[in-house]
Amino acid sequence: MHTQLDTATNRLPDSLCTHTPACPPAEGSDREAAHVVVAHPEQGWSLLCNGVLLFEDTGELLPDGRVIPPHRTLAVVA
């Protein structure tokens, strides 16, 4: 899949979703359910089709530049 940059802003479109049904939007609470467009597990990130960069620590970077801090649960050692 080849994605074009917006030449006016030099950035990817907010949504890369081209399938039906459409994936949840980047603003939705279920945004992590979107399909993976590009995966780089060796670098610790994936690009979802709604434009969200999802990091292996569960942090996220939204298309508008907002940062969602990591939110995975920590294991408790007894």
Task: Summarize this entry quickly.
InterPro entries: DUF5999 (IPR046041). The protein has 78 residues and is an all-beta fold. The chain has strands spanning 36-40, 45-48, 53-55, 60-61, 67-68.
The string of secondary-structure elements, in order, is EEEEE
Helix content: under 10%
Low-confidence stretches: 5-10
> How much is the radius of gyration in Å?
14 Å
Distance between the termini: 47 Å
Question: Helix count?
Answer: 0
User: Average pLDDT, to the nearest integer?
Assistant: 82
Topology, number of strands: 5
Q: Structural class of the helix and strand makeup? A: mainly beta
Main β-sheet description: 5 strands, antiparallel
Widest sheet: strand order?
A: 1-2-3-4-5
Shape descriptor reads: globular
Strand content: 15-25%
Oligomer: single chain
Q: How many domain units?
A: 1
What does this structure look like?
The protein is mainly beta. It has one domain. Helix content is 0%, strand content 21%. It is built from no helices and five strands. Strands 1-2-3-4-5 form a five-stranded antiparallel β-sheet, with no helix packed on it. The model is unreliable at 5-10 (pLDDT under 50). Keywords: Plasmid. InterPro entries: DUF5999.
